[in-house]
Amino acid sequence: MKTILLSLAMFACVAGDNVYICTGPHARRYHKSATCKGLRNCSCEIKQVSLEKAKKMHKTPCHICCKNDCQQ
After folding, report:
1. Paired residues of 20 in beta bridges
2. Residues 40-53, mean pLDDT to the nearest whole number
3. Cα separation of 55 and 71, whole Å?
4. pTM of the prediction?
5. 3-state secondary structure labels for all residues of 6-69
6. How confident is the model at residue 11 (pLDDT cuts 50, 70, 90)?
7. Which of 9, 29, 36, 56 is least surrounded, with the fewest CB atoms within 10 Å of its CB?
8. Is the dihedral of CA 48, 57, 38, 40 positive or negative?
9. What is the pLDDT of residue 12?
10. Is 55 exposed, middle or buried (0-12, 13-18, 19+ CB in 10 A)?
């Protein structure tokens, strides 16, 4: 049962999903929500991109909004 629940949680951020990134030069994370606290200090633009594209840009999941379901 744990395996099924874990699989469902991981399925929440599959390659077809969109995430938000900061285009600033030091930004390293992707976010489930454009209103995440982790994006407050974004010095540039916040863009919506596919999860696949964010991963290709070497972005990692935000520890605030992707705590349980957007792990790599």
Report:
1. 31, 48
2. 96
3. 11
4. 0.72
5. HHHHHHCCCCCCEEEEECCCCCCEEECCCCCHHHCCCCCCEEEEEHHHHHHCCCEECCCCCCCC
6. very low
7. 56
8. negative
9. 46
10. middle
**β-bridge mates for residue 21, sequence order:** 30, 47
Pull the structure tokens for residue 58. 């070497």
Tokens of 38: 């982790």
Query: Who's near 9: CB < 8 A, 6+ residues apart?
Result: 68, 69
Left, alpha or beta for 58 (phi > 0: left; psi -120 to 50: alpha)?
A: left
Q: Tokens 């629940």 map to which residue?
A: 5
Token pair recorded at residue 14: 């599959």
